[in-house]
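So, can you check what follows?
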Amino acid sequence: MKGIVVYDTYYGNTKTVAEAIVEQLKAEGHETELRSVRVKYPAPPQGDIMFLGSPVRMGSVTRRVKKYVEKLDLGLWKDKSIVVFTTILALPENPTDKQKESREKYDIAAGRRFGDLARAEGLRVVENHLWVDVKGMKGPLVETAAETTKQFTRDILLSLKKN
């Protein structure tokens, strides 16, 4: 199986998550390709599964990654699994109820809306999405980010094998 991992990033955090996904795919014996939405490639991505990632900024994924999804070749990807991942601002140590509510309503929900956008384009999006916490506006990622990402990737691969 070949996994394509596509991401947008501002401060490098989402790229780090994308690299952890690539690392886990390789550890599982799969071929991989890492792509940034900011780079023009000579050919469209071709693989068996795609991981699409973006930072969440002001309650939404980036415009670049949305445009990438809208332009994705449906003929190549409509029957293949698409997995969404985002990086979001971590909650403070003792969050208020309002902060928790805001995180769920805007940050975590941004990943769900991203999946809905891809579904609306005719893509087959895996229900579960990954969100990884970032300390502060620019990072770094929380200490558990790499292992959480790798476990999520393992879980996705196992669920696809069962289907």
DSSP finds five helices and six strands in the chain. The first strand starts at residue 2 and ends at 7.
